[in-house]
Amino acid sequence: MKLLVVNGPNINLLGLREPKIYGNKNYCDLLRYLEKLQSELNIKIDHFQSNHEGDIVDTIQDSYKKYDGIVINPAAYTHTSVAILDALKAVNIPTVEVHISKVSERENFRQINFIREYVIKSFEGFGIEGYKYAIEYLKDYLNNQ
């Protein structure tokens, strides 16, 4: 099983950006965590992070027929990007959304979520541990298809 983890803008600044909201773990900690999960769950996990919407869209498009599933933290693009939603729909790969913070309890403008229309499940507010929940859920989903 091969999964792609896609992270949107400012995820590369974990640990620096608003630690009261996002925690003290940095992006390298997240990547090490994904490597650990890859071994524990016996799956292949590739990862990608960009602050640029078009690069995220290109990566999703390039994932077609290469990955069994996608875990995505679109970050701020959650609330603005129809392009990312359309790319996910186009490749039609089972996708789980993850957010480090509890987005549903934050500012009003963060209550708009274009991505949720497509994904099979969303996890929010679990810190980087949410990636584990998302990956485990996606793995179980794919194994039961």
* General form: globular
The count of β-strands is 5
- Secondary structure category: alpha/beta
Give a short account of the largest sheet.
Answer: 5 strands, parallel
Portion in beta strands:
15-25%
Mean pLDDT: 93
Q: What's the helical proportion of residues?
A: 25-40%
Q: Walk across the major sheet and give the strand order.
A: 2-1-3-4-5
How many structural domains in the coordinates? 1
The CATH superfamily title: Dehydroquinase, class II
What value does the Rg take, in angstroms?
A: 14 Å
Report the uncertain regions.
Answer: none
Q: Spell the H/E element sequence.
A: EHHEHEHEEH
In CATH terms, what is the fold-level topology? Rossmann fold
At the first level of CATH, the class is Alpha Beta
Total of DSSP H or I helical runs spanning 4+ residues = 5
Distance between the termini: 13 Å
CATH architecture: 3-Layer(aba) Sandwich
What key phrases describe this protein's structure?
145 residues; alpha/beta; Rossmann fold; five-stranded parallel beta sheet; 5 helices; DHquinase_II; DHquinase_II_CS; aromatic amino acid biosynthesis
Commentary on this structure:
- The chain is α/β, with parallel strands linked by helices and 145 residues long.
- It has a single domain, classed as 3-Layer(aba) Sandwich (Rossmann fold).
- Helices cover 37% and strands 18% of the residues.
- The protein is built from 5 helices and 5 strands, in the order βααβαβαββα.
- A 5-stranded parallel sheet has the order 2-1-3-4-5, with helices on both faces.
- Strand 3, helix 4 and strand 4 form a beta-alpha-beta unit.
- Helix 3 packs parallel to helix 4.
- It is globular, with a radius of gyration of 14 Å.
- InterPro entries: DHquinase_II, DHquinase_II_CS, DHquinase_II_sf.
- Homododecamer.
- Belongs to the type-II 3-dehydroquinase family.
